[in-house]
Design brief:
The complex is a heterodimer of chains A (301) and B (335).
Chain A (H helix, E strand, L loop, with lengths): L1 H30 L6 H19 L2 H30 L9 H21 L4 E2 L10 E2 L2 E2 L4 H23 L1 H11 L1 H6 L4 H26 L3 E2 L4 H17 L4 H21 L7 H13 L14
Helix pairs in contact in A: 1-5, 1-8, 1-9, 1-10, 2-3, 2-4, 2-8, 2-9, 3-8, 5-6, 6-8, 9-10, 9-11
Chain B lengths: L3 H25 L5 H26 L7 H19 L3 H23 L4 H18 L12 E2 L15 H25 L1 H11 L1 H6 L4 H27 L1 E2 L6 H14 L7 H22 L3 H22 L4 H16 L1
Antiparallel strand pairs in B: 1-2
Helix pairs in contact in B: 1-6, 2-6, 2-9, 2-10, 2-11, 3-4, 3-5, 3-9, 4-9, 6-9, 7-9, 10-11, 10-12, 11-12
Classes of the chains: A mainly alpha (301), B mainly alpha (335).
Chain lengths: 301, 335
């Protein structure tokens, strides 16, 4: 029973990490920037979601509100910050570290602004359905209707995203701009706006991750909460496991990470909550530095 | 061979300047009030920590968000040797440097295989993970942490010599010595090797530089210096606990280094002063505006982050380098 429990917890957490990893991958593919502020943006969108829940009272209205809010914030960041960054700091000794530093600065700005507006007390978002475990043959599982719902919703969103990427013109433009920006521009794709779109999609995916991470945890929301520190690190690690360039890789990376953390906490020690992701990341980077689905050349960028 | 005497002369001038700077600072410490002395000690510690980042990021081109964790290693090493073995304080600092350097060498061995964002993410995971490990071992004192007491200032310095002034003397001396050492390392063959790698890794490799070994060396030295800064920081706080080394510390150090100019060691002072001054400025601003407590507590973090972004966007190579470039341009125009 322990085994099943751990597996189901790991899978649920894993789908949330996978969403976060997808948003990192979308940004990396569109602008070659690892966005360390992604968790900050997810936090901000979750606050938007909180405002919507407390005004309108429905989680299902709040979720799209958070997604739209997240997409708008991400698009604005791309237009204002990233374009300036590419223009000003793409040469000299700082070129390699400028995007990292700028997105970290952004993380700090978003964190402190949300703390100024909503900080102090812990806010609560109540999930749409119960988080009490299912009962089978008298034993209660940790797996709950809410976790099942998260699992299904995330899978549906991933399905929609992959249809958009594979079957529509927008998806084609996104793929073309990531693969060969110059050629895409020559064939009439507005690469700059496609990049902004990539960021917006990432912002929306991050918003869902933030909302679900909150209700899947203890439901409280605060700028310094453990949930969001974990989201920051896990999204990055899941993306790296999958190989930063691949959306399918991000999904698998998220699931693998979720399962590994769940099993380590269950069978080794629950005190390893924060150090386990680091060890997993180092192991992956040593065994297969380009990630599961990454091309060998991806590392060079 | 003929250049020797010139280099020698320049070196003795530098030594003179360092000593002069030290003497001026020590006399100044007698003239200002206690709070300023304490802040002076903090500035000296930040100078050490920031110069360790400048060495690593500015010269060898590796980004570390984990220097807060390495500072924690140094701080815990110093506190444990002080408590368990009752060694004299200077030996505690030496142990702190050595242990942090060992940690840095291990991290550097992993880091040498990684580049840019991968390295940043890995060290970020470390910065979040490592301090929480302290709760796993009872010898490290858990959430409350350990007491770290460097003792009273020696009586020979006089009755009026306060504890804070003693902190300032220790930190100031450590800052001068470590700046001196870093400056020499950066001017040596190793410094040139690192700059060559940062400029073009393939070209450096072709001219016979062992890339991995140089990168690990840079990480080791930088970590040792960070460990010293960590031990000094816990000296001024009086305790060592996980909460003294949050992720925010690693961020502020990086911000301090960027504000100083990543490639100008002499600028480390600028970043350190800004980091210490910002909470004060934020306090004044908050009082003027009469804002709520929420805003007041988060204003320093906001200012540091905003300043970080603005610097990267508009003064990417730091104020000192910017000034130098403008002057060079001006001269070129005159000719």
């Amino acid at each position: 029973m322990d085994l099943l429990n751990t597996f189901l917890i790991g899978i649920t957490a894993g789908t949330i990490y996978a969403l976060m990893a997808i948003s990192m991958v979308l940004v990396w593919r569109s602008t070659r920037v690892v966005n360390f502020a992604q968790a900050g943006m997810a936090l901000l969108s979750t606050y938007f979601g909180y405002e919507a829940v407390s005004r309108l009272g429905s989680f299902w209205i709040a979720l799209p509100v958070a997604m739209i809010g997240g997409a708008l914030v991400a698009a604005l960041v791309e237009i204002i910050l990233i374009r300036l960054l590419v223009k000003h700091s793409s040469s000299g000794p700082i070129a390699g570290v400028a995007p990292i530093i700028a997105t970290l600065g952004l993380l700090g700005v978003i964190r402190s602004i949300s703390a100024m507006i909503w900080g102090g007390q812990d806010l609560r978002i109540v999930g749409p359905i119960s988080n009490d475990g299912f009962t089978i043959n008298g034993t209660t599982l940790v797996f709950s209707p809410l976790k099942l719902l998260i699992l299904v919703t995330v899978l549906v969103l991933m399905l929609i995203l992959s249809i958009v990427f594979q079957k529509t013109n927008i998806g084609l433009a996104l793929r073309a701009s990531a693969y060969a920006p110059e050629i895409a521009r020559l064939s009439g794709i507005k690469v700059d706006w496609v990049r902004t779109l990539g960021w917006a999609l990432a912002g929306a995916a991050g918003a869902v991750a933030g909302m679900f991470q909150t209700v899947n945890g203890n439901g409280t929301l605060s700028p310094d909460s453990i949930e969001f520190s974990l989201l920051l690190v896990s999204g990055f690690i899941a993306a790296v496991i999958g190989g930063l360039d691949s959306l399918i890789g991000a999904v698998i990376g998220g699931l693998v990470l979720g399962l590994m953390i769940a099993f380590v906490l269950m069978y080794v020690s629950s005190g390893l909550f924060f150090i386990a992701p680091f060890v997993i990341l180092l192991t992956v980077l040593f065994i297969r530095p380009q990630g599961i689905f990454g091309a060998k050349a991806a590392r060079r960028a | 061979m003929q250049r020797r005497p010139v280099v020698h002369k320049k070196q003795s001038r530098d030594i003179f300047l360092f000593i002069l700077g030290g003497v001026v600072l020590f006399f100044l410490s007698g003239m200002v009030d206690e709070l300023r002395v304490y802040q002076g000690a903090t500035i000296a510690i930040y100078v050490i920590a920031i110069s360790s980042i400048i060495l690593l990021t500015g010269y060898s081109g590796q980004v570390s968000l984990g220097h807060g964790a390495l500072m924690a290693v140094g701080a815990y090493a110093a506190a444990v040797t002080r408590i368990e073995f009752k060694l004299p304080i200077i030996l505690c600092f030496v142990v702190a440097v050595l242990l942090a350097a060992i940690g840095g060498a291990l991290l550097g061995a992993a880091a040498a295989r990684l580049s840019g964002p991968y390295l940043a993410g890995t060290t970020l995971a470390l910065a979040i993970g490592l301090p929480s490990l302290a709760n796993q071992f009872t010898v490290l004192g858990g959430e409350q942490g350990l007491l770290f007491d460097v003792g009273f200032p020696p009586l020979s310095l006089g009755e009026e010599f306060t504890q804070y002034k003693w902190f300032f003397w220790i930190a100031g001396l450590a800052a001068l010595i470590s700046m001196w050492i870093i400056k020499n390392i950066l001017g040596s063959r190793y410094g040139r090797t690192w700059r060559a790698i940062r400029g073009n890794e393939v070209a450096a490799q072709l001219s016979g530089i062992n890339i991995a070994r140089s990168k690990i060396l840079a990480f080791t030295i930088s970590a040792g210096i960070a460990g010293l800064a960590g031990a000094l920081l816990s000296m001024t706080i009086g305790t060592v606990s996980p909460s003294a080394f949050p992720l925010a510390l690693s961020f502020s150090l990086l911000a301090g280094a960027v504000l100083s100019g990543l490639t100008t060691l002499g600028g480390a002072m600028i970043g350190a002063v800004v980091l210490v001054a910002i909470p004060e400025i934020a306090d004044v601003v908050a009082h003027r505006v009469g804002s709520s407590e929420r805003v007041t507590t988060n204003l320093p973090g906001f200012l540091v982050s905003a300043l970080l972004i603005l610097t990267v966007l508009f003064v990417p190579n730091g104020p000192v380098e910017q000034h130098r470039a403008r002057k060079a341009k001006h001269l070129a125009l005159k000719k």
